[in-house]
Write a structure and sequence with these properties.
Layout (H helix, E strand, L loop, with lengths): L14 E6 L5 E2 L15 E5 L1 H7 L34 E3 L6 E5 L9 H14 L4 E5 L3 H13 L2 E7 L4 H9 L3 E5 L3 H11 L3 H5 L2 E3 L7 H16 L7 E5 L4 H16 L8 E7 L4 H8 L25 H10 L3 E5 L1 H15 L5 H15 L9 E5 L7 H7 L31
Bound molecules: zinc ion.
The site of zinc ion (ZN) has 8 residues, from loops.
Length: 428
């Protein structure tokens, strides 16, 4: 199906080049790349979509494996490192007739991070890299560790000493090299940066796979956009609510919609893209409300939804542009609202969500109450991970849920009242 001869020197199959999202400069795709050398813009993988359109249609997907690699026609042509990620359930809400919950908690390693790291590690192995370094406060670390284990690459993880217990233990069991750092993820990132000055970094196949600092995590995450369209019968919903830390999934889905339009799989319609963030760390919400084109560093970021503790997403300029173009918006949720929504979803929908995912429900309620969405609007809420990864976090928050009439079970052992979980993700 593929045309391997297309500019074989610089491309990988139908992946023709990388393009800077700031200045538009093109870079070859046949070697590891980080960000644009001129302006540090995020690089996007670009494909010969016209050629793909001639040989591959949405009907060709029928009967393909139910993983994200069913879309390999629009992914780099490399031997996938796969644990069965993607093609997660699109569940009809029991509470709201036109709401769907895309349950990313069923991915390998229990979160949507599996998609990005599957693609990233696939390309790292393709390029012959050996040692992948990541500063991470949680699920990305677990996913990198798993995919490195599955590929024979080394995972070098720098995480704050107080990360959620599940992330620390899974990394250990996957055989990753884990360095626990006193401080926040920004301190972890400094450890990775210091490594880059070493001789070993140049000679031993090291690579930094931080969020949006390499082009392929976005490629993995974009498959969520393909799945939304395919699972809804190639209809676009009116809205997508997406818990936004680094925002890679939001970027990826928007990229996927443009690709699918070029492929003739969907038309020009687009969902309103909604960012939800925690009130204790809401740089995109603040920038959106101010009409800004980039965000400011959020001071004293604090939320139990550790994946949302990103004080300034590296891709903020792209996130805000997507909100604007899609006529979307940005909403915040307090930790109390998030914990209550986590419990509510578990009881009402049978979905034990990550706190970040449950924030989507908080946002949907607010947007319905404010008239942004009508009852008949089809809206997809993303649950980004499994609540099982957050047992210690949720146990510590028991008794704090509000306004449901639920009867929270008190923990049998007293928990620290304000345990710091995880750290701050980016910028580095
Ligand atoms: Zn550039």
């Amino acid at each position: 199906m593929r045309k391997p001869e297309a500019d074989a020197k610089l491309s990988i199959g139908m992946l023709t080049h990388l393009e800077c999202t700031r200045c538009g400069e093109h870079y070859p795709a046949d070697r590891p790349q980080t960000v644009c050398p001129k302006d540090a813009g995020i690089l996007y993988a670009r494909y010969d979509l016209a050629a793909i359109k001639r040989t591959f249609s949405s009907a060709s997907l029928s009967g393909r494996a139910p993983t994200m690699w069913r879309y390999d026609a629009i992914l780099p042509e490399a031997d996938p490192v796969s644990l069965g990620e993607g093609f997660t359930p699109m569940l009809s809400s029991r509470e709201y007739p036109n709401v769907y919950i895309k349950d990313e908690g069923l991915n390998p390693t229990g979160s949507f991070k599996a998609r990005g790291l599957s693609a990233c590690v696939t390309m790292a192995r393709h390029f012959g890299l050996k040692k992948l370094a990541i500063p991470s406060a949680g699920n990305a670390a677990g996913a990198l560790a798993a995919y490195c284990a599955a590929s024979g690459l080394e995972a070098h993880i720098f995480m704050p000493r107080d990360v959620p217990m599940a992330n620390r233990i899974e990394c250990d069991y996957y055989g990753a090299q884990v360095t626990l750092v006193d401080g926040l993820i920004s301190d972890c990132a400094r450890k990775v940066a210091a490594l880059k000055d070493s001789e070993s970094w140049k000679n031993d196949g090291w690579f930094d796979v931080s969020t949006t600092k390499e082009p392929y995590r976005v490629e993995g995450k974009k498959t969520m956009g393909y799945e939304v369209a395919e699972q809804l019968g190639w209809r676009m919903p009116q809205g997508i609510i997406y818990p936004t830390g680094g925002g890679v999934g939001l970027l990826g889905m928007w990229k996927a919609f443009d690709e699918m339009e070029a492929l003739g799989w969907i038309g020009r319609e687009r969902p309103k893209m909604i960012t939800v963030q925690a009130s204790g760390c809401a740089p995109i919400v603040k920038a959106w409300e101010q009409g800004a084109t980039s965000s400011e560093m959020w001071q004293h970021a604090a939320t139990l939804a550790s994946g949302l503790r990103v004080p300034k997403p590296y891709g903020d300029y792209l996130i805000l542009d997507i909100l604007r173009k899609s006529h979307g918006t940005a909403v915040s949720a307090t930790d109390e609202e998030i914990v209550e929504a986590t419990r509510h979803w578990a009881k009402v929908e049978g979905i034990f969500a990550a706190p970040e995912g449950a924030a989507s429900l908080v946002a949907y309620r607010k947007l319905r109450a404010g008239g942004f969405f009508q009852p008949e609007d089809m809206v997809v809420l993303f649950n980004t991970g499994s609540g099982l990864k957050y047992l210690d976090v949720l146990d510590a928050s028991v008794g704090k849920s509000v306004g449901t009439g639920d009867s929270p079970v008190r923990p049998t052992q007293p928990k620290p009242a304000a345990r710091q979980i995880g750290g701050i993700i980016g910028p580095y």
